[in-house]
Amino acid sequence: LVDNIRALAIHSHIIFLQETHLNHLDYTSLNNILPGWLAYYSNKSSRSAGVATLLSPRVHKAYTVSFPPIAAEAQGHALPLLLTPREPHDPTVLLHNLYLPTGTQHSERLADVLDACALLPPATHNIAAGDINFVDLAADTSAARPHSLSARARKSWCRFLELFRLKETVQPLHTFFRITDTLVHSRSARLDRVFHSLDEVDRQLFQPT
After folding, report:
1. Which of 16, 39, 95, 194 falls between 20 and 30 A from 32, CA-CA?
2. Could you give the 3-state DSSP secondary structure of residue 147?
3. Burial of 30 (0-12, 13-18, 19+ CB in 10 A)
4. How far apart, in whole angstroms, are the C-alpha atoms of residue 169 and residue 146?
5. What is this structure's pTM?
6. What's the whole-number average pLDDT of the chain?
């Protein structure tokens, strides 16, 4: 794990980690993996959940970092970090590291975490990444009962990402990217559905293939 984190740091300035399984009082375990980097935590327990975000010295040189307050039910599942630029004309950035509850019995908990995210004031740029744990189609998971997203949670999710121009017609029918064409167990699941609010011109440049 440590070797993988160090490999990611060669070409990255922000690293999102999920399922850290750190004790709720542990705010030091990741601090010395990458010299000069700082680790930010949202822990739940040593047995489940937990997210951590690692930021490089370059990020800290350009931004100050703060924790927007978020509802208690998001602890260990969502870690928002607001990057405020040191240069007054640069944009603010809201980073959101997510590990959403998984399993059909936790659909409401998943929706509650997304609702908590959606209440945060948006920055100029909003970036969310992590283990989202929902799909739209059964073909995108190996699970017997796919973990879908309710209409209410979907609205919260789109509102959080500021997808105000989102139209279902511009979305893929299923995920473009996958680890494997043969889904045999949970580790072979495809990536979650891709949402975007790009206009026609943007889509000519950025549409996945």
Report:
1. 95
2. coil
3. buried
4. 22
5. 0.76
6. 76
Q: What is the pLDDT of residues 135-145, one digit of tens each?
A: 655 665 555 56
Mean per-residue pLDDT for 109-126?
85
By mean pLDDT, which of 91-95, 116-120, 156-160, 190-194 is the weakest? 190-194
Report pLDDT for 179: 45
Per-residue confidence (pLDDT) for residue 65, from 0 to 100: 97
Beta strands in the chain (DSSP E): 14-18, 38-42, 51-55, 63-66, 78-85, 93-99, 125-131
| 21, 61, 78, 127 from 5: Cα distances, Å | 16, 21, 20, 20
Tell me the DSSP string of 148-185: ---HHHHHHHHHHTT-TT--GGGS-SS-S--S-SS--S
Distance CA 22, CA 208 (A): 36
DSSP one-letter code for 48? B
| Dist. CA 56–CA 38, nearest whole Å | 7
Secondary structure class of 3 (helix, strand, coil):
helix
Residue 120 has pLDDT above 50, yes or no: yes
**In terms of C-beta distances under 8 Å and separation of at least 24 residues, what long-range contacts does 189-194 make, across chains too?**
189/135, 189/140, 189/141, 189/142, 189/143, 190/135, 190/140, 190/141, 192/132, 192/133, 192/134, 192/135, 192/140, 193/135, 193/136, 193/140
**Tokens of residue 53, six digits:** 């975000």
Q: What mean pLDDT comes out for the span 161-189? A: 46
H helix runs in 55-150, sequence order: 57-62, 107-118
